[in-house]
């Protein structure tokens, strides 16, 4: 793999007519679902292309990448770009997404914010998916029943809000949000937002699906233009064809190892070349899903035969036919000669399976070298559990590959050596697996099939053990404590086929490409590379229809949404107070540094999931997990902070949340100093809401992850970047900070530099320089105290103007 700046014309040629790839596949016959009414999910291609035509004129008809075409065709008002054009990596775009999807954990806070806007319905089609709050303990049926009872208050709230505002409500058991979106809503050329970092999964259908916080989703739901800095575009040129044990999961694991967890920040990954056409739609979705692990804004692909087949198979023939027409006009592919900011070349034929981890998704090791790595690190050569599924790898194709392995093993008389857990991606997948006897094949070798939900991937599989152990999963994320609450559990990421095969060995050192297993009769058995079915020959089956929503429901404004004032699960939001409310202040108030955070600090560190998921709708309760797994750089301890009370001069050690509570109680504004790529991982906006709730007004970082930085801005926290990263070590807990030069920024000069005057607890004051990424609109959020405050203020002003 190497990187060069290159025009796509060097690969695609100069013909303006759509070219059928030489690697186009013929598909086995399959029976599609009955065609659905696709009115609400078919992009308005004529409108989008007309808008893009105007943008093209503004940009002097320069060739555009596919990502640019989709993004720019959704600009709210193209004329706003007429004067300065669009500069990738610099220009802020005002966009009009076509759809919003929310999972149950993040939907609670998003809906609480939306309710405060006092609107009768959502401005765009919106859906809620109950998937995060379902535990993974015993098996599908009992886990689902238990979770529905224990989360009844939250599910009732979500369902009543959905009914009131005309939102499609996917009930518990329906499946994982991203698989459902791919099966039902995704369409080539669409722009959608989702309140989950793995929303880009839908990019497998040739669209732009972007993970955001709830406040960003509220922008789209209220019809407010959504703001995004025009991303840089990284082209990933694929040649060759995957073979043997290698899958699309291995491609993205390989890329994660090359790009690292922040290599895609501020970028869209756009895949092109003959290798794209050789992969299935759901395989491409796996690649797009894990683009989140390199920090990419999203990932996308040109419209392929595989996408067309998948649309027909899932009852969306009208979308496929409309996309065919759009493709014929050149909309769903990059222009010949389009320039990427960077191009990465990958020959799929040369890839081998990869295992990534532990504790970070970008630590990639080729499977053939992994046994040596196990030995060199002194890890126990054993696996405590194997888990397949999750939103990354739970398609029919993934499951049929795993079943191929299971059937080979059964024929040899083998069963799994370790707990082996399987999560279907949706009720449609589960029902189709059951009909086609895939579930039987897995259970016959020892697998436990879990509910159609996120389950262990999001931490809904707890353990009381604190011992070091290794699990092997086909998940997408493997941070400490994420999957079972044990910070010593090493989660290694791999494809479902590798996980399944290794479950029959129980050893980390086992390489199914080369190694053999002893059968009960003493013979040596070696797996052959598995094969899967891209689409079921008998078509998909819906399964239990009671899990599904009514399509395009009408709002029922008389629906009552009741939140008990004594509820421990839900809490109405109080607006955050602006530090500029009295109009006399031109700088942020003097702030005390609560702590300096060391190293990797993901949104899992800032706002843990697992048992805390039940408090996602109650800001006060969930704030008690603030930074509880973060490392204090001044001492190296986890969840330890100091309160240098300025009045008494005494220092008190306590947990991080309790120190933050003290600051809040005495009305003392505070700040954080943090390390590289702060806030990587999940899109959870609670990681911004919680520090704001306790009184944080500013976070200064060596660098930020994209979604988290935006979430901080939305909640009225000023994110600043150290101009000199060495200054990180100069600012510590108990120091006070004052902004210098913020006044110019507040007056509309978005190019203004902001300095910080730092007064140490001991020693002379000094100043440091910072950088920022605040746009003009984001500055207004800061002034108002939050983006939601700004929306409400604008609404009030408009209402007063109408009434005057």
Automatic annotation (TrEMBL):
Cofactor(s) this protein requires: [4Fe-4S] cluster
E.C. no: 4.2.1.-
A Pfam short name: Aconitase_C
Cofactor mode of binding and number, as noted: Binds 1 [4Fe-4S] cluster per subunit.
Keyword Protein biosynthesis attributed: no
Example GO biological process: tricarboxylic acid cycle
Ranges in coiled-coil conformation: none
Any one GO molecular function term: 4 iron, 4 sulfur cluster binding
Domain named Aconitase A/isopropylmalate dehydratase small subunit swivel: residues: 591-724
NCBIfam families linked to this entry: aconitase_mito, PRK07229.1
Protein name per the record: Aconitate hydratase, mitochondrial
Lineage of the species this protein comes from: Eukaryota, Fungi, Dikarya, Basidiomycota, Agaricomycotina
